[in-house]
Specification:
about 130 residues; alpha+beta; minor pseudopilin epsh fold; 4-stranded antiparallel β-sheet; about 30% strand
Length: about 130
């Protein structure tokens, strides 16, 4: 009986510890995913603007937990992506890339944090996106 109680106690301890580690892993992964998504959408907006897709400039905005890639002339081409509710995004203002040149109208440094993890994504004056 004592052996059974010890085995159950060990299994319960491992279960509790693994859930803590798994939770931390999910938060780290979510922060990484959101930073990758921001970088990807910013690069895509610049590429679309430089290529003259839909003959307009393109931009990225973040509103109410949603990243949106948009064409400046029509919302018909918008692409939206949801952000995990446990993730906090700061320092972001909408960025619009000029048609043909791909030069951004602003150079934000986006801070993405959650669960004790923080990543940054920035856009420089030439439109280069870095993580």
């Amino acid at each position: 009986m004592i052996e059974l109680i010890l085995v159950v106690a060990i299994v319960l301890t491992l279960g509790v510890l693994s859930s803590v580690f798994y939770s931390r892993f999910l938060n780290q992964n979510s922060v990484s995913d959101v930073s990758d998504q921001f970088a990807s959408q910013l690069r895509k907006a610049q590429t679309y603007a430089m290529a003259g897709k839909q003959n307009t400039s393109w931009g990225v905005k973040y509103v109410a937990g949603t990243i949106t890639l948009f064409a400046s002339t029509s919302s018909a081409f918008d692409e939206t992506f949801g952000v995990n509710t446990n993730i906090t995004v700061g320092g972001f203002s909408p960025v619009i890339f000029a048609k043909a040149t791909g030069i951004p109208d602003s150079t934000p440094t986006i801070t993405i944090s959650g669960g004790g993890n923080t990543k940054t994504v920035s856009v420089n004056s030439q439109g280069a996106v870095s993580r």
